[in-house]
Each structure stands twice: as structure tokens, then as C-alpha cells.
């Protein structure tokens, strides 16, 4: 039971995730979220003006969780190649863990992502910018060949799509997945270094 | 009206595609296909023992259409880099054309592909083998750096997935699609040539 006045947006988002997990994206309502928290639905609406706004914020929070760890890696010490490999393999590992550990919640988030494509686009833009920072640093250190920063960063993101785009989640448990990731990584790294 | 004795498997497959287009994959039946041809359903069953077998053959035919043109490109004259670029851009163009020219039929084939994943796996294997032949030739001509042939070919296929995997069809009409394809191609080519 949460007292009405102390209720935070974060508490609502955690409860909303739990409700979505339990009832699925088609059935979950704001009233369910309020009941989960032991508050009135108007208390929830004070933070999120509509069911759509709440679902958007839940999607945002889910996607943001990936950013912090990756941001730290992109600003790490070490060569740009090392950071890039670490960044891409961490992204793959995080997505794979989410998909395999809790497939139902993952499927729920796919529905939410479909509904909130602008949030997903902003998420991808944030990730591509992190890649761009690593790439730019690699060019400055003469590890990588100079090229258009943002379009090269996007190309790295696109070329590794089979290892982070949720549409490929079903392939992530295949025994060859890691080997295939390594082969693409080798190709990408060679492409960035190529004179 | 087709006389029963002259009925070929190819005629049935063409009629089945037309019926699938008209009724959708959920409703189309073997009786509809027989009616379309003006034959009895037993005439259809003589060629395809079940509805599932017919749908599998329709899927196979749809996927095979891509192979012939690509096979010819893989065996073309010209450098391996030229052939590889031609092969990848032809695959992208063909998939994009199918997806954009007739979105309903494309959606129908996505359902059929989902049902017949073994056929799809064999299709991908055929394509990766064509890529492997171009890559091997490039290594022999010293255009490309020696590397494991099949896993490198698979890496090229995986890295270009955003430009041939049907799950990305919605992005193929975006104005940046060609630019993004070129950036990935540049990265891949650099990776294959990298010393």
C-alpha cells in the first residue's frame, strides 16, 4: 500500500510493468495499476494524463535501462576498437538476456514498442550517437579510417541488427549465434580500419 | 478451364498464389484452387498430397524466383567486389519491389514463410552459398583478405539483413534507405578487403 501523497512516477512505472506482465498489453488498465499500488486511479492520472502516456513512459523506462551501461562503456578508457567491441557485445548480451529470461515480458514490450515508435526512434538515435562518439574518437586516434561519422555509426548499428533488433530474438538462443556475432564484428572492425 | 490430364504442378502453383492473394492465407483452401482451375480437388491432390504440401511448394516457388537472377550475377564476369555489390543491391531491389508493389501478397508470403521455416532456411543457405562463391573467388584473385569462407559469407548476409530480411520491409520506403544501404556496403567491402 502506497500513500497517495508519496506516490512517485517511478513507483507507478514499476507497478505498470508488473500489471503488464500479469495481464498482458491488451488487457492491462490504469485501474489495474492503481489497484496494484492501493491508490485511486486519479492519483495515477496526476502523473500520467492518459493510459497512452503511461504506456509510453513504461516503454521509455525499459529502453533507457540499456543506455546507462552502454554510455559508460562508450566513455571508457581503452582503444576505440576495444570499446566498440565491448559496447556491441554488451548490447547483444543485454537484449538476449531480456528476451530469454522473461519471454512474456519481452513480447509485451514488443507490443509497447510498436505502439510508441517515436520513443523507439529516439532510443536508436541515442545508441547511434554513442557509436558515433566511439567512432569519432577512433578516427582521432588514427585507429579508424576517416569517414562520415553519423552515417558510419548508423552502418555499424544496421550491420549488427541481427544481434540487437528484437525481431531476431528467436535466433539468439541458437548455438551459432555467438559465432555469427563474432564474424560480423570482425567484418565491421575490418571495415572501420580499412585504408 | 484446364483439362484434368494436362494439369501441371506449375499451373496449380500459379492458381494457388492467385487464390492466396484473393482470400488471404487464413481462408484459402484447396477447393478454391481447384475451382480457380476448373478441376476437381482430387486433381490438385494428385500433385500435392495435402494443403500443407501445396503451401510449402508455393513458398518454395516464391523464394526460388530470387535465386536465378542472383546465381547469374554470382557467376558474372567482373571483379568479385563488383559482383558482390551487384548481387546485394539486386537482392535488396527485388525484395523491396515485392514488398512495395504488392504489400498484401507480400504479407501473405510472410505468413507462408513462417509456416515453412525449413524452406526459408534452405533458401538462406542457397543465398549464403552464392555469396561464399563470390567471396572465395575474391580471395583467389587477392581482392579480399583470406578468411573462413562460409562464416564470412554468412557475416555478409547477416550484416546486410536490414536490406533483405522481410521483417524490415516497412523501412524500405524511407528516403534514407539507399544511403543506409550504401554505408553498410562500404563497411562490408572494407571489412572483406582489410589486411
Q: Biggest chain pair contact, residues each?
A: A-B, 29 and 29 residues
Please give the alpha-carbon distance between the first and last residues of chain A: 62 Å
Extract low-pLDDT stretches of chain A.
none
CATH superfamily of the largest domain in chain A: Tetracycline Repressor, domain 2
The oligomeric status of these chains comes to homodimer
**Number of contiguous helices of chain A:** 9
The CATH architecture of the largest domain in chain A can be given as: Orthogonal Bundle
User: Average pLDDT across residues of chain A?
Assistant: 94
Largest sheet of chain A: none
Total individual domains of chain A = 2
Strand content of chain A: under 5%
How many β-strands of chain A, per DSSP? 0
Helix content of chain A: over 70%
Overall outline of chain A? elongated
Tell me what the structure shows.
Two copies of one chain form a homodimer. With 195 residues, chain A is mainly α. Chain A has two domains: 4-49, Arc Repressor Mutant, subunit A; 63-193, Orthogonal Bundle (Tetracycline Repressor, domain 2). Chain A has nine helices and no strands. In chain A, helix 1 packs across helix 2 and helix 5 packs across helix 6 (103-115). The longest helix of chain A is centred in the N-terminal third of the chain and has 24 residues, at 51-74. Chain A starts with 8 loop residues before the first helix and ends with a helix. The mean pLDDT of chain A is 94. The interface between A and B is medium-sized, with 29 and 29 residues.
